[in-house]
Amino acid sequence: MAGFKRxxxxxxxxxxxxxxxxxxxxxxKRCGGELTVLHVMEExxxxxxxxxxxxxxxxxxDARRETREAFDELLKKAFAPGEQFIEKLLEGSAxxxxxxxxxxxxxxxxxxxxxxxxxxxAATLGKVLRGSTAPVVIARNSPAESYNRVVIAVDxxxxxxxxxxxxxxxxxxxxxxxxxxxxxxxxxxHNPQEVKEVIGLREKLLRRWAEQEGLPNFHSVVVAGDPRxxxxxxxxxxxxxxxxxxxxxxGRLRHLLLGSVAKESAHKAHCDVLLSPPRALKKxx
Length: 285
Known about the structure:
Layout (H helix, E strand, L loop, with lengths): L5 E5 L6 H15 L2 E8 L4 H5 L3 H25 L7 E6 L2 H10 L4 E6 L6 H12 L4 E4 L7 E7 L11 H6 E14 L7 H21 L5 E8 L1 H11 L4 E5 L5 H17 L3 E5 L9
Parallel strand pairs: 1-2, 1-4, 2-3, 4-5, 6-7, 6-9, 7-8, 9-10
Antiparallel strand pairs: 5-10
């Protein structure tokens, strides 16, 4: 993958929006992709407005005007005169508009802010991940241009080059990569010697795969524990600026497990998080 051709920054006009745009701008600059900044406000249909009292219709018009002004102010702060980007201020379902932007062309990438309770994009994230065919970056920081310390969660039962490509495309030349595989132990009592042997075997498999794929400057880590906690601990230990987590289709139980890891990472990671949704997963209703 040479890079992403279309980068979408979905913003909710909160303080994190400047970080989202900065991260998306850095990616667009490195990849040479087209940048779109998107905000979706609540929809007020014509039929609904006719049912409103005149004073309420005035409030709706004021809300639209204030949103437009806030969006313009955000863009003014985020972009220097002459910088190229596409702005879209839409009304309706945030998840539907975001998905339409992403799925309208191949090789797209979405940047969103870290989810916060009560924010519209927090409620949107799950729907986007279930329906998107494109990777999603949860932005917390603004990289200078690209990421230098990347932690990649690896599922040894599904080793494919495609698992690495989004993270590689976002990484700086000379970036370091930590490949992490986690053995879920949960509440089960395992024989420590058996766990040690499994860890050793998986480390060999992980190194062999990375070498075969030509992954530069990497080291592998295999640990036993709760995947949701262990992955975040490894990201902190590596001082990562990007944590890459894949979500794969498969059985429902498998999807729920991987989904919980992705959700935990999106909410609690100290760094930006790259989520790659399953390409074949049907959109849930």
